[in-house]
Design goal:
CATH architecture: 5-stranded Propeller
Strand content: 15-25%
Protein name: Agmatine deiminase
InterPro entries: Peptidyl-Arg-deiminase_porph
CATH superfamily: L-arginine/glycine Amidinotransferase, Chain A
Shape: globular
Largest sheet: 4 strands, mixed
Keywords: Hydrolase
Strand order of the largest sheet: 1-5-6-7
Organism: Marinobacter antarcticus
CATH topology: L-arginine/glycine Amidinotransferase, Chain A
GO molecular function, one term: agmatine deiminase activity
Oligomer: single chain
Distance between the termini: 33 Å
Number of domains: 1
Number of strands: 17
Length: 350
């Protein structure tokens, strides 16, 4: 008998957040002093509300982190909330190589999809094996993990927790991920693995500097089953204007199951953020992380940050909004949601 599967929404109760820590063998090597404080701020923010799982290839650094974060947690009356796991990694994008957890007949099951660095753009073999290291270390207790012969990144899908997925056709249908599968075959596999009943396909959307082929978590997000927020570019002279205006039209055409339109909230368009070589970076306020009782919001030290904080505060009025400066993260073409993966309740215990 086939199990009834559900991919929980991000706002569903969580047991933990997973981070893959940067080390000298990653592309972060030259700016570790800039990026580690961002990871530490994310880690401490998570520890206030739930468990934290950190893996790091650099064992000495991992031991130092474990002491530092456990001491901080102890000082704040939050002891015993952290797993520290030595594990090899090519990079730090836990959203995309981390496990995707479904509820199968209401019991959590970890799905270990293949990760190939967004279609073979970068080395990926260590990242693709990382979930097994976490399982073997005992992080997930007795929760089973199922390997799935399909390339899928967590940042490429958004779930409303009720059987609807939001995704971009540019990402999920790109041949460098699952070349032998067409749209119908992909929809069937996601139905079987994630319990998806329908997919809302965005056919437009673009961010300069993005390596992921338009991951949905940089463009549009579910805030509740009937509410979507999205990035909007008001500047007709900006290179993003046409693609994001077309994306907005896609969103306006989407309908809920009962036929009513979604409530839509546009997020601010930040002033351009550039890398050290003058390239435009994919700074986006859509890359927030919802955790138990809070939302961690990436900001970029630009004038639009305050407006973004205000809008997210109104959307998630029952949660604390924690802005985190992600200028360093975006230098490697990702942001806050990209380096985190939430794990639903009942999985990670200490």
């Amino acid at each position: 008998m086939t199990s009834l599967r559900v991919l929980p929404a991000e706002w569903a109760p969580q047991s933990a957040v997973v981070l893959t820590w940067p080390h000298p063998g990653t592309d972060w090597a030259g700016i570790l002093d800039e990026v580690e404080p961002v990871f530490l701020e994310i880690a401490r923010s998570v520890l206030r509300f739930e468990h934290l799982v950190i893996s790091c290839e650099h064992v000495t650094r991992l031991q130092d982190l474990e002491r530092e974060l456990n001491a901080w947690a102890q000082q704040h009356g939050l002891p015993g909330r952290m797993w520290a796991v030595p594990a090899p990694a090519n990079d730090t994008w836990a959203r995309d190589h981390g496990p995707i957890t479904v509820l199968a007949d209401e019991q959590p099951t970890l799905l270990d999809f293949h990760f190939n660095a967004w279609g073979g753009k970068f080395p990926w073999e260590k990242d693709d094996a990382l979930n097994r290291h976490l399982v073997n270390y005992g992080v997930f207790g007795a929760t089973p993990m199922q390997s799935v012969d399909f390339v899928l990144e967590g940042g490429s899908i958004e779930s409303d927790g009720e059987g609807t997925l939001l995704a971009t056709s540019e990402c999920l249908l790109t041949p460098s991920r699952n070349a032998s599968m067409d749209r119908g075959a992909i929809e069937q596999l996601l139905s079987e693995m994630l319990g998806t009943e329908r997919i809302l396909w965005l056919n437009h959307g673009y961010l300069a500097g993005d390596d992921t082929d338009s991951h949905i978590d940089t463009l549009a997000r579910f805030c509740s089953p009937d509410h979507l927020c999205y990035v909007a570019c008001p500047d007709v002279a900006d290179e993003h204007y046409s693609a994001l205006a077309a994306m907005e039209e896609d969103l306006r055409e989407f309908r809920q199951r009962d036929g009513t339109p979604y409530k839509l909230t546009a997020l601010p368009w930040p002033d351009p953020v550039f890398g050290d070589e003058g390239e435009r970076l994919p700074a986006t306020y859509a890359n927030f992380l919802i955790i138990n009782g809070a939302v961690l919001l990436p900001v970029y030290d630009v004038p639009q940050d305050e407006e973004a904080i205000d809008i997210i505060s109104r959307i998630f009025s029952d949660r604390e909004i924690i802005p985190i400066n992600c200028q360093a993260l975006v230098k490697q073409h990702g942001s806050l949601h990209c380096v985190t993966m939430q794990i639903p309740e009942g999985v990670v215990v200490l």
